[in-house]
Amino acid sequence: MTRQRRRTVRQRAPRLRRRVARTGAALAAVVLGLAVAPAGAGDGAAPSPLGSCGPIERTHEVVELRGMRLRRLAGTPLDRIGMVAWRAGRAQPIPFQVDERIGTRIAMPGGPAPEADDHPGVLDADDALLFMACDAGARAPAGTPPRADGREIRIDDPRTGATAWAYLVLSDAPPRTDRRYVRYDPARDTVTTARWSIGCVDALPSYFALGLTGPLGPNVVDGLRLRANAVLRANLARWSLTERDGRNGLVAWTAGPIRVVRRSKHEVEIGLGIHLSAGLLHTAFYGEHVLAPGSLKLPFSPSVFFREITALGGVDLRGMEGWRYLAPGVPAGGLAVDGRMDERERAYAGRGRWFALVRGDEAIAVAITMSEELERALPLDLVYVDDATRAAPPEIAPGSVPFVGVRAREVERLPGGRYRFQLRVFAVPGWRAGAEQALLAQVDVPLTAEVSIPPDLEPRRRPTQDPGDGAPAAQPR
Asked: Terminus of the chain with fewer CB atoms < 10 Å: N or C?
């Protein structure tokens, strides 16, 4: 490089670093956001598994209704609200929770940086009522449980045509149940359900015990793997990042019987004064699934500054011998997890939006949903490694039995714009052939819900129809 060229590079370096930092912060969200992060809180009650479903057999879908859709109940004290479903010929209390919000943000009372609601203990228009679709039942004989003063909620499944009902009840002593589907231990940063237990260290998953069809077993995770490699144009600089290069921390959490939501922050300093941040990530833990949504905003294409960017995200497992790996493009019957890579496994090069680890009739399935623009611009390679002798530091113990995840190549080609993605992890205790198609269809076709005043309430109490009726029941964030 000539003397004049070196002088020009030094003069442009500060501006280049600022632009790289802005672009890198967004790119970090791709790697950090496509990870399973842990969450929330609860009392000492042991979590229960979901029981048998009512008319709608979706164990992984929550019904979420904003306060504004509950037909003029804003201002109602939360301790006057109960939820029931008509099951086995009678009204039975079902688990529910109300997530209080400050605008679009969930108010999280726990953690290092808690945030209280502006009207605590009272239902606001922006608060959210949540219950599991599986818990909804038949329509009550008179349209509402006896002596109920509340709201009737109709849930429809567009895929199957099934319809179910649940009832919000207002009373000085509302019907409640002690059943809960999640529990959070803040001291250990661990969320536990009847199906699994997930713990964190420095805001990243470090413990995962399974109990899909029995008691919880031993930890099967060695750690989360987040790896990225980037090369600036003209080879001015190269970076290789791992999950241990960042500063990751819990910010706040909230928890109830239905879900635990965990807010975490992730950032990394990579040298040359360049600071990358994935911002705040929110992960929701339910009884039988985890939802980790994310967004990515690029003011311009990374190719303006980067010649090459690759990213890898996944989890390094251990002790999963006897399970099978299923994904698009695998041979019939899947790939056997045994700690040894055979020719079929070495040759596997799959692409798709899902993969699963299956043993008998139990499974852990992962589904990745991306906005159309992101999916078109950034196809994902599925990555599977089954090698008990493999070393991929930094790690706690050598070996990947197996490693499962995704790899994104040519990330630098992404055009500028806003992109959204979601990572879902499903516990499936009743796995059968083709179950992944049903899960993906449920993701693509969510339930809808309508809220009405029960017809046997006094006419003077019945307001006009709310404009939001018929909207999707679950609102991913």
From this structure: N
Residue 301, pLDDT score: 87
Please report how many Cα atoms fall inside a 13 Å half-sphere around the Cα of residue 143, on the Cβ side.
Answer: 10
Same domain, 375 and 451: no
Per-residue 3-state assignment (H helix, E strand, C coil) for 408-442: ECCHHHCCCEEEEEEEEEEEECCCCCCHHHHHHHH
Distance CA 333, CA 348 (A): 14
Output the pTM of the full model: 0.85
- Both tokens of 103, joined, read 């605008």
Helix (H) or strand (E) holding 444: helix 435-444
Q: State pLDDT tens for residues 241-281.
A: 888 787 889 999 999 999 999 999 877 665 555 555 556 78
Which residue carries 């990394």 as its tokens? 268
Q: Which of 386, 211, 210, 402 is nearest to 315 (CA)?
A: 402
Q: Is 441 exposed, middle or buried (0-12, 13-18, 19+ CB in 10 A)?
A: exposed
User: Does 415 share its domain with 428?
Assistant: yes
Q: Classify burial at 259, counting beta carbons within 10 Å of its beta carbon; exposed 0-12, middle 13-18, buried 19 or more.
A: buried
* Closest among 302, 320, 319 to 311, alpha carbons compared: 302
Quick one: pLDDT band at residue 188, thresholds 50, 70, 90? Answer: very high
Query: Do 213 and 267 fall into the same domain?
Result: yes
Q: How confident is the model at residue 455 (pLDDT cuts 50, 70, 90)?
A: low
The pLDDT of residue 134 is above 60: yes
Residue type, 54: G
The CATH number that applies at residue 15 is 2.70.98
Question: Tokens 């536990």 correspond to what residue?
Answer: 192
To 5 degrees, how large is the angle CA 357–CA 358–CA 362?
A: 125
The CA angle 212-217-218, to the nearest 5 degrees, is 140
According to the model, what pLDDT value does residue 271 have? 52
> How far apart are alpha carbons 282 and 264 in whole angstroms?
7
In a domain, 386, yes or no: yes
In a domain, 1, yes or no: no
What are the pLDDT digits (tens) for 223-233? 889 888 889 88
pLDDT at 48: 96
Contact 83, 169 (CB under 8 A): yes
Is residue 29 pLDDT above 90, yes or no? no
Q: Are residues 224 and 325 in the same domain?
A: yes
Of 251, 177, 162, the residue nearest 445 (C-alpha): 162
Domain that holds residue 352: 7-39+187-441
Beta bridge partners of 261: 254, 284
| Over residues 38-50, mean pLDDT | 65
Same domain membership, residue 228 and residue 172: no
User: Does the residue 473 lie in any domain?
Assistant: no
Task: Kindly state whether residue 14 falls inside one of the protein's structural domains.
Answer: yes
